[in-house]
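Notes from the pairing session

We agreed to fold both candidates in a single pass and log them together. This is the raw record for the first candidate, unedited. Please don't reformat it; downstream parsing expects exactly this layout.

Candidate A
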Amino acid sequence: MPTYSMKLLKKQKIANDTMAFHWEKPEGFEFIAGQYCKVTLVDPHKTDDQGNERAFSLVHAPYEKDVETATRMSDSAFKQVLKNMPDGTEVKFGEPHGDFTLHQDESKPAVFIIGGIGITPVRSMIAQATHDQLPHKLTLLYSNKTPADAPFMDDLKGYADENPNFTFVPVMTETKSSEWNGESGLIDAEMLKRHVSDVNVPIYYLSGPPDMVQDMRQMLVDSGVYEDYIKTEEFSGY
């Protein structure tokens, strides 16, 4: 299994308790939008029983210059080392994996129902589809507590402006209606039907905290969606 040494170019806070990390893309590193890699710290100054390796979805699309990962921060040794890592530090990336990738059948719409940091593989897919001018109809329902908790909002708004086939529906669960004029509350069958004309046609992509992914899967099944049309990616532990 090949591994790739990648050098940290920069890091930045992108939402509440959330950071993005940009890595120098090495020669020969190829992946499909939506895939993930295992990232291993090299001789970290501290560690714990969770180890020095984590799996991260690749945020940037294959056409973009560098490699980006993003994560909710925590008190784990891994996350603290990452948070304080100086620019230029090298880590090891494993080979890209995963089939949480955009389907090829252009006649079938894609509907993404996403919570929080689960947006990372989806940002990559939508960016690549917009860049390639794919004809797929794409709809994203993106749930967060507040706008300040939502990574990549500006990117997603930009893709919606650029891509006539992409509909962006941000959803806030803990923002007062006086402060937010979009969708509010938990995503349910009624909200889905407001934005998807025939819920039985699309391929669905569910990503986010495990409880949300399970609830959304059950909601879709209860709505009559064929289970083979549902793809899931759970983000646990952060």
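Candidate B (folded immediately after A)
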Amino acid sequence: MRFWMAFLGILLFASTSFAQKFGYVDTEFITSKMPEYAKAQQQIDQNTRTWLAEVEKKKEEVEKLEKEYKLEELLLTEDLKQQRLSAIQAKSKEAKAFENQVFGAEGELFKLKQAAYKSILDQISKAIEKVVRAKRLDFIFDKANDGLVLLYTNPVHDYSDYVLEELGLELDPNLVEKTKKEEAQEPKSPKKN
């Protein structure tokens, strides 16, 4: 009977020691509690309102030119019509270029958000690292985004190299050489006679 109890104890210990620990955080909830985030969001909102007003002003200028053109179209010569249409097209392109410059994928708003949130995200990342170490977690997910986003993984569980090997693909040559150099530098144990 003692043998079976000891065996079950060892089995239970082994299964818990090899288990991977998962956790999740809600970055939306965390940032809502941070005064720095609220301040950054206010700055972003203020700049966005200013930029939207400028975009709207440029669009109104284009609309005004189009209305004036339609009112005067019958009275204009062919050359003047072409000049006015060119001016309208130029203003329209200018308005679209400004809108893209501000709200485009790499626009001013994107850059402002990146700069404003960088220190906040760094703080959160450092806190996550501390929690991971203290709680001995292997994976941390963020439930605030659509679907789960992986924020932290223990590099021990990265099997990318094995998959590359299985696919017959070569690892990064710099990594392979570095590994060979490290293996060559390791002191070899003396041979026993």
